[in-house]
Specification:
Blueprint lengths: L27 H17 L3 E2 L5 E3 H7 L5 H6 L2 E3 L5 E4 L4 H10 L9 E10 L11 E10 L4 H17 L5 E7 L3 H16 L7 H9 L10 H7 L11 H16 L5 E2 L11 E9 L7 E7 L3 H4 L7 E7 H10 L12 E5 L1 H17 L4 E3 L6 H10 L4 E5 L1 H6 L1 E6 L5 E5 L4 H9 L2
Parallel strand pairs: 1-5, 7-8, 12-13, 12-14
Antiparallel strand pairs: 2-4, 3-4, 5-6, 6-11, 7-9, 9-10, 10-11, 14-15, 15-16
Helix pairs in contact: 5-9
The site of histidyl-adenosine monophosphate has 26 residues, from β6, β10, β11 and α11.
Length: 433
Amino acid sequence: MCGIAVCIDMNLITKRVKGTQDVLPSQSYKWQFVEKLLSDEAKLCGYKEIRTPVFEHTELFNRSVGETTDVVQKEMYTFNTKGGTSITLRPEGTAGAARAMLENAVYNDGLPIKVYYNTSCYRYEKPQAGRYREFHQFGMELYGTQSPSADADLICTVDSMFKRMRITDLRLEINSIGCPTCRAKFQQALKDYFSQYKDKLCETCLSRLDRNPMRILDCKSPVCKQIAEDAPTVLDYLCDECSLHFNKVRELLDCMGVKYTVNPKIVRGLDYYTKTVFEFVSDSIGAQGTVCGGGRYDGLVEELGGQAMPALGFALGMERLLSLMEALNIELPEPENCGVYFIGLGEPGQKEAFRLTREVRNSGIYADCDICSRSLKAQMKYADKIGARFTVVIGDDEVNTKKAVMKNMQTGEKFDICLDERFFETFTVGFLK
Ligand code: HAM
């Protein structure tokens, strides 16, 4: 709002929706920096970006994330379109990426397929620090290999991404939750165990007891959590093949010097996982310390109607990552301030300032001029506010003589510049000094 005082005591008709956040201009550089770093690292490993719609048919998430998960039972933003189709805002990125990969037969480009994404996600959870209803994930998905080296490679990639961001405070926890064969035995053991506590479990968990007792393990209710403490752990039920796979992943991580602990209690909150699962957890950002989670999901592609295709991936929460970086005082490079601000006075001066601004911008330098018809004083004030390194005042005299003075706003040093064909030559002398 040019020239109009900013009103502090505003009568806004509404505020942002609970559980959402604004990324303000003064902060967005942090997001851009981290998103670029992650995307660049993904590209170095051969991953290409995939962009999928923010909403999908509800069926997709019911089938992939799982009917008995907290996400599907309690947290999805689901609505009917005017045509009566049930639509859901994506609660995570894996299902949409797999659907898009299958629908567009991306597998014809050769296996393995490697994709990454930066997406907003939506979950109707109780908002608290690090837990939002709209949040953002950076994720990577890899399709077409069941080799344990793929699991180790993916985990190493995440580990080196965090190292590149100078984050030292994350611990890696891994586990294996087996395949459908060993899972059946584990589910039976859980059912036997939880059946003793039928009178104490919450209603949702009671319904899970028959359908999917493993999901009781990630219930957020304090009572169910307490009961789950002594529940059987999945590692005791792994079949030989899954044990071997897990051992191989561990061997490779050891070989790469990636530090981890085996946490047999990690089962992840989504149904599609098989075999390796992992989380990167921090103690520096409060209760919502899981910055990144992922694992193998060998059955998902088939579940969605494709041919059997093993897959694995991870997603990290951008909000949690940025808050961890802040907690660790990791500074990110701030964007460059305005290089030069042309102060145009009077119509000819304003036109010339406008022309020069475009010329400097075309050479790749951040330049600006007045577009609010402000006075000299107000333009000076604005140039100062945006931290312009140089200013050039252009009035009638400067236009007539084709000469102006460029001032270094930090040192006060002044340089003569020409406004004719020698503009760049003379401008550069002062600008680069
Ligand atoms: P997830 O563990 O549900 O996994 O989410 C991944 C990350 O997203 C979490 O570690 C956390 O940092 C962030 N996150 C989740 N919920 C919220 C929330 N309400 N507010 C803020 N951040 C949140 C998945 O979504 C899987 N799709 C990951 C994956 C990809 N597995 C295989 N491929």
